[in-house]
Amino acid sequence: MTINSLTKNTKHLLHALYQSGVRHFVVSPGSRTTPVALLLAEYARQNKNIKLYIDVDERSAGFFALGIAKKLLEPVALLGTSGTAITEYTSAVAEAHISHIPLIVLSTDRPVELQDNGAPQTIPQHQIFGALTKKFVVFTLQDEQPDVTSYIDFMTQKLVHEIVMSPRGPLQINLPLRKPLMPQLNEPTAIIVPLLKFDAIDDSMSPMKLSESRVVIIAGPNEGADYQSELLNFSKKYHVPIIADVLSRTRQKTTIYGIDALIKANILTSAYQPDLVIRFGATPVSARILEWLKSENIPVWFVGENTLADHSRHVSRVLQLTPTSFLSQISVDNNAEFYQRWQDLNQKKRYITGEASIANVLDRVLPDQTAVFVANSMAIRDMDDVFTGQTTQNIYANRGANGIDGIISTALGMSSTSQKRSVLLTGDLTLFHDMNGLMMARQYYLPIDIIVINNNGGAIFSFLPQATAEPYFDMLFGTPLNLNVSKIADLYELAYVKIKTADELERVIKIPVTGTRLIEFESNRSNNVKAHQQLMGGVQHE
Amino acid sequence: MTINSLTKNTKHLLHALYQSGVRHFVVSPGSRTTPVALLLAEYARQNKNIKLYIDVDERSAGFFALGIAKKLLEPVALLGTSGTAITEYTSAVAEAHISHIPLIVLSTDRPVELQDNGAPQTIPQHQIFGALTKKFVVFTLQDEQPDVTSYIDFMTQKLVHEIVMSPRGPLQINLPLRKPLMPQLNEPTAIIVPLLKFDAIDDSMSPMKLSESRVVIIAGPNEGADYQSELLNFSKKYHVPIIADVLSRTRQKTTIYGIDALIKANILTSAYQPDLVIRFGATPVSARILEWLKSENIPVWFVGENTLADHSRHVSRVLQLTPTSFLSQISVDNNAEFYQRWQDLNQKKRYITGEASIANVLDRVLPDQTAVFVANSMAIRDMDDVFTGQTTQNIYANRGANGIDGIISTALGMSSTSQKRSVLLTGDLTLFHDMNGLMMARQYYLPIDIIVINNNGGAIFSFLPQATAEPYFDMLFGTPLNLNVSKIADLYELAYVKIKTADELERVIKIPVTGTRLIEFESNRSNNVKAHQQLMGGVQHE
């Protein structure tokens, strides 16, 4: 008998809860709880550390679980059936919210197709406790997508960890389920939930010597914290290669840049494969680096004070402290040859043409520590590919939600804080989205060069599968606006320069100027794709 | 010209923001912003550290403020007018949420009487950004209640502190305003916002010697953390009196108990007045102690890792670390006579009669480290008044939301974690609320004595002003249910004992027994009021 998705995912949820320290379950049975309750009862029979209580009145169950959690200061899980049964937990959740108790509500729910349609026992259960729960998640236990199983494994451990960290609080896990609800009992498939280990370091960390000899650090986007010199000293002392994101504030000649292009060009052969990768900072601009770590199954640790963000769900250990504290306590005996091999990557010849050459010129000619704001979409990718950080680490972007709205205004806000000239690198579509923002440049005469790469529309879509949908592509994705940048400058009374080649930018940047200036560079979307494919020489495919 | 509430409270808000580190304001004007915008412009003219930007497009304003906050890593405030204007901030708030930027939205709003009634530019603005904001608060700037001014002072500093602490995030301050909206300009009244100082201690704290010689520590409710021995050593070494809440897990013969009764009996004369009080833990059971600190204007510090909770708004300094770390680094040169005077308070004669004598007997006869759950309302007050903690520190209660629902189940949950007999002290009304919970006692044969003080209704209301509303009092507040506790025991198949005097409890507790037992003690609500008034001798009034 092959294990079905419902049985497999439910078992993963239960094992992941157990692995996160949940030992007590208080169940109020009902039809909708069937698969979870049955597999839990089976699990409790196999694992004597699990204590299972049945309490038919959900209000009482909520408080009973609270009593266990209060006494043991452990996470305790409730399991209840759909409808008002779930609302009965509200008082216990309120008490747990204020008195910081890690109560977990597993709320089984009707499936999406029965919502808001007159189906019995169906109430809107998503986030039903509102601000009373510290965290909330939905697991679709019947989903056949293997990624959902890995999501359940990873998120359960991450969220239970978050609710047992100060200030503790409740968690709701909503479980929409459709009929048939019967799971497979006595199904023998072994369940393995990859461990996500958290080291919460309260005070200072004790010294730790890593046994791996091919350790690599990835310095991701980092707004604010300054650990560049500690990182560079560490790298040199222990021969640890540093892959530095363009937003990491640590790019410099001894750090590796442009990892995305290197992976795309298949340059990272097994000779480069680390036996441990340590990540700092937020999600890297390069999507390929996270995919590579996962596909090559390279162990990854994450170091940071804040909540772990790893949508690749591949991090296996989290050390909750600042990179600076971490670096001061770690020693590594890394292979020198391995280190040198990584260092040599910076020497690989880049064939930089087209739009990316703007980032390349900026890398050469910007005055020291110029603040640079980089738009999302193509601009940030070009910068990550070719900007080596020789002149400035002062790179900003909106990489939280990666929107293309509001970039002009954010860059102007950034530039308003300093008398020194700033730079914004953007495309024409992003410029148009926030064109109104230019009024602030006129009103406050802000010292910034806005470099507009004008490829007449959404260039990034030319790299994506929809580029082949020719009859509709330009209308829906290319969206050419035929923007007249010179007229925009005229409207907002800004200086305007048009450059034909990237090299002209060097001359323009050196002209003394005050206030805001629009610098337009005309490009072409189809040439741009070719230019990017040839970056590392040869032709690569997306 | 006397300053009016609108002008005064708005100035307090602006000063409190400034005091919390806000230097940049980005204003999108509109009718509803009138008072805040005008007073802000006046303030910025007086204080050159304030930088004021006007950006008429709110979407651009949101991102412009984000750009400033990103660059400076400081909290930056937006001010916008009611209606869709506020929704225009959503994209910037989303980016700030994910990338951890302390953006503050001051959203002026229509007043409550115009909500949901067809009034123009009126949308539901409370928590409008949902989970995208880390914190949310409403300030009623036109309110004449002086407490509202102090709320604005305190909460502004507390909330801005919370959003600049990791993980940083946005804050919405909603400001409902009714016409007339014109504030008083050039109004000369000096604005003083009491400073709320936060010391965020990342690693270990440096040693600190206090200059005060009459320092007192209040150990409040504390679930989990064990710092009793450190606290007692500290107290002895530096002659620092400890006022220990019954839920503090630190009550012992050298700590002061029953502070509420001592204040009520006017025993705390000026000879007892500290020059500094340091609070640990949650809100004390005694309401009088916080009122006393505030009315005597005694400086109070708060030590704790979690968010500060001080509804008296009197704490002036917060040290964010554990009591254990704090105690290890502090030294005090306290007055020995002062210390002795406080210690002598434990020798004051108590006249314990009626309901409180149950807590008194428990204090004498409980086996060592018995887990005791205490219901809210009268039971917890009695315990705080007379239980000295000689036998056990293992005291639990639901003091987050202080509900009387769910107490039976919580206590049963607590008792389920141990083979050792536990105790629950409760009144009859609390028993009735969660009578269903007794099913768990029957099903799992839980080892607990449930002591029910049966005064036939809500005894606590007899202490409150409504007790004088005789024609309605019993119906609405006394709510006598004439509960037959013996029949309840019979229904759930529990052992049952009725005691006539508290002394009988000693004998009953010593009888070997298994499973759950209901012990009923009959009381009388009017005698109970008298008994409490005479606790410290003489007659006190509420």
Automatic annotation (TrEMBL), chains A, B:
GO biological process assignments: menaquinone biosynthetic process
User: Which pathway does it operate in?
Assistant: Quinol/quinone metabolism; 1,4-dihydroxy-2-naphthoate biosynthesis; 1,4-dihydroxy-2-naphthoate from chorismate: step 2/7; Quinol/quinone metabolism; menaquinone biosynthesis
Enzyme Commission code: 2.2.1.9
Top-tier EC class: transferase
Which InterPro entries does the record match to this protein? Answer: MenaQ_synth_MenD, MenD_middle, THDP-binding, Thiamin_PyroP_enz_TPP-bd_dom, TPP_enzyme_TPP-bd
How is the co-factor bound, per the entry?
Binds 1 thiamine pyrophosphate per subunit.
Note the subunit structure.
Homodimer.
Q: What does this protein do?
A: Catalyzes the thiamine diphosphate-dependent decarboxylation of 2-oxoglutarate and the subsequent addition of the resulting succinic semialdehyde-thiamine pyrophosphate anion to isochorismate to yield 2-succinyl-5-enolpyruvyl-6-hydroxy-3-cyclohexene-1-carboxylate (SEPHCHC).
Q: Which PANTHER family match?
A: 2-SUCCINYL-5-ENOLPYRUVYL-6-HYDROXY-3-CYCLOHEXENE-1-CARBOXYLATE SYNTHASE, PROTEIN PHYLLO, CHLOROPLASTIC
Name of the protein in question? 2-succinyl-5-enolpyruvyl-6-hydroxy-3-cyclohexene-1-carboxylate synthase
What taxonomic classification does the UniProt entry list for its organism? Bacteria, Bacillati, Bacillota, Bacilli, Lactobacillales
